[in-house]
Design a protein that fits this description.
The complex is a heterodimer of chains A (137) and B (409). By secondary structure, chain A is an alpha+beta fold. Chain A has 6 helices and 3 strands, in the order H-H-E-E-E-H-H-H-H. Chain A has a 3-stranded antiparallel beta sheet with strand order 1-2-3. In chain A, a hairpin with a 2-residue loop joins strand 2 and strand 3. Chain A is globular, with a radius of gyration of 14 Å. Helix content of chain B is 40%, strand content 17%. The longest helix of chain B is centred in the first third of the chain and has 21 residues. The radius of gyration of chain B is 22 Å and the shape is globular. With 409 residues, chain B is of the alpha/beta class. In chain B, helix 5 links the parallel strand 5 and strand 6. In chain B, helix 2 runs antiparallel to helix 10 and helix 4 packs parallel to helix 5. Classes of the chains: A alpha+beta (137), B alpha/beta (409).
């Protein structure tokens, strides 16, 4: 099992323990509060992914052959989901990020947040993460 | 104003969607500003048309074509009555408010807007009443001017008067702001513009479901609204225009229906209203809209307005009791729209959590980004009420927002 698959399986396992939506969202909110905030100097137009509802800032660096993502959002639930995506995709090789399937969002019942109609910046963020990986290949 | 309370319980039975569940909870639908739900009568009229009456209008001598045309034109008469337009041919069907504004921005400006001229709008317009004018001004070398509003969300009338110069060729202003709920004094604003012979267009998208529209009393030159916000179908809307302007304006779209004669050398255009209705219209949409207007008439728009006002006052008081909650848009004269923010909390987070509790509200900039910029906020959460909403709905909203705020704090 690849590390991305392993990390996703762990998340699915973790989320399966929540008995209702309240617990799930409280967890997301906590994750959002804990997300290491992007260095303020990068919270600029250049790193901004504009959503109609909420916004996301995303930056990627290449460290020892792996892509390291840092990000932030102005909405806390979006930030919680950003934290999940970073947890899964950060510190992986560009090849893995490009090729490995990302199925956990659906499996933990957060698919609605990645719908284009939400316009919260997350769909564009995922695209952007893959683009960074392509650039760092 | 009559204030007989409508029989809400009975009314709600007419709206099939209102009895559904969302996220395992009975739905509380408070996004009427975005679109309103449809009564069974409207749904039946649309499916009935397709089941038994479908034919193209204004052509063909066969029975069904005649029937469809009669129903189509009967709906136009219902719309005429709804707005108290003087003439039937001044009522033009469009795809919605947006298309109605685009039509006027294109055709009026093509005829009357010259380099150096100005179009005047307000700072609380929906993007639909900003961008078409920007396009027209860009095309004609004209300038777009903007009437400012105060911290309550009321247009500053003294500034408006100053902006009404000889350069202004048209004023286009919203009747009720979708983001702030402000009811603008359009009658008085039209009077002031007319003193200088400047015509006025009114965006009535948010007003038509809530208050009596009387284009003659307002003396509006153009007035438009959308079918889907008055409990009718999506994709259909109305433009009222004074005959003298509509006749002086070139067509917006070319095609069938809008022509009298066509040759490769010269085409002559049809009479009003067909001149502005190119192509096969949304016949089912028009019939559905007619049915929606009948439905509103059966309750009475004054009764609707009075009940919504009661809901507005009740919800305002209850929401303001939530610590840190601030209402954006506190005009003296306000419709049943409450935009709010909670200190330190992003409106999107509130929207996501109350949705989990079965409450549908809108969050974001409400297609009115300049308003959000003026208040220096990323957006608001907005509850907008219709006559089928109840005080229980308000209570569910308040308890859901309270819970969301607790979770997010």
């Amino acid at each position: 099992m690849s590390t991305i698959a392993k990390k996703q399986a762990e998340l699915v396992e973790e989320f399966s323990m929540f008995s209702d939506w309240t617990e799930k969202y409280e967890y997301l909110i906590d994750l959002g509060k804990d997300l290491p905030v992007i260095d303020p100097q990068y919270k600029t137009e250049e790193y901004l992914i504009k959503g109609c509802q909420s916004q996301v800032w995303l930056r990627a660096d290449k460290v020892d052959g792996k892509v390291v993502f840092t990000a932030d959002s102005d909405a806390i639930i979006t930030r919680g989901i950003v934290a999940l995506l970073i947890n899964v995709l950060s510190n992986e090789t560009p090849q893995t990020i490009i090729n490995d399937p990302l199925a956990f969002v659906d499996q933990i019942g957060l698919k609605e947040h990645l719908s284009p109609t939400r316009s919260n910046g997350l769909v564009s963020m995922m695209k952007q993460m893959k683009l960074y990986a392509l650039a760092y290949q | 104003m009559t204030s007989t309370k409508p029989d809400i319980e009975q009314i709600r039975k007419d709206f099939p969607l209102l009895s559904r569940e969302v996220n395992g909870k009975p739905l509380v639908y408070l996004d009427n500003g975005a679109t309103a739900q449809k009564p069974k009568q409207v749904i039946d009229a649309i499916s009935g048309y397709y089941e038994l009456e479908n034919a193209n209008v204004h052509r063909g001598v066969h029975f069904l074509s005649q029937l469809a045309t009669d129903k189509f034109e009967a709906a136009r008469e219902l719309v005429r009555g709804f707005m108290n337009a003087p003439h039937l041919h001044e009522v033009i069907f469009t795809r919605g408010t947006t298309e109605a504004i685009n039509l006027v921005a294109y055709s009026f400006c093509k005829a009357f807007l010259k380099p150096g001229d100005e179009i005047l709008i307000s700072a609380m317009e929906h993007h639909s009443n900003i961008v078409p004018w920007q396009l027209a001004c860009e095309d004609r070398g004209a300038t777009l001017k903007v009437i400012p509003y105060n911290e309550k969300g009321e247009l500053i009338q003294s500034e408006y008067e100053k902006l009404l110069t000889d350069k202004v060729k048209l004023v286009s202003v919203v009747h009720i702001s979708n983001a702030l709920g402000t009811i603008n004094p359009v009658k008085e604003m039209i009077r002031k513009a007319h003193e200088k012979n400047i015509p006025v267009m009114v965006d009535g998208a948010q007003a038509a479901p809530h208050l009596r529209i009387d284009v003659q009393d307002l003396d509006a030159d153009f007035y438009c609204f959308s079918g889907h916000k008055v409990f009718g179908p999506t994709g259909i809307g109305v433009l009222y225009g004074k005959e003298k302007w509509l006749n002086a304006m070139p067509p917006y779209h070319g095609g069938g229906e809008m022509i009298k004669t066509v040759s490769f050398e010269k085409t002559t255009y049809n009479e009003l209203p067909h001149k502005f209705e190119a192509g096969t219209p949304d016949i089912a949409g028009v019939i559905g809209l007619g049915e929606a207007i009948k439905y509103i008439n059966s309750i009475g728009i004054e009764t609707i307005g009075a009940w919504e006002h009661e809901l507005l006052e009740y919800a305002t008081e209850k929401l303001l009791a939530i610590p840190g909650l601030k209402i954006i848009g506190t005009a003296e004269n306000k419709a049943s729209v409450i935009s709010f923010i909670v200190e330190g909390i992003h409106p999107y987070d509130i929207g996501v959590l109350v949705d989990k509790m079965g409450v549908a509200i809108r969050t974001g900039h409400h297609c009115a980004q300049p308003i959000m910029d003026q208040f220096c906020i990323p957006g608001t959460a907005r509850a907008s009420f219709a006559f089928y909403n109840t005080k229980d709905d308000v209570d569910r909203l308040v308890s859901s927002v309270t819970k969301a705020v607790t979770m997010l704090s």
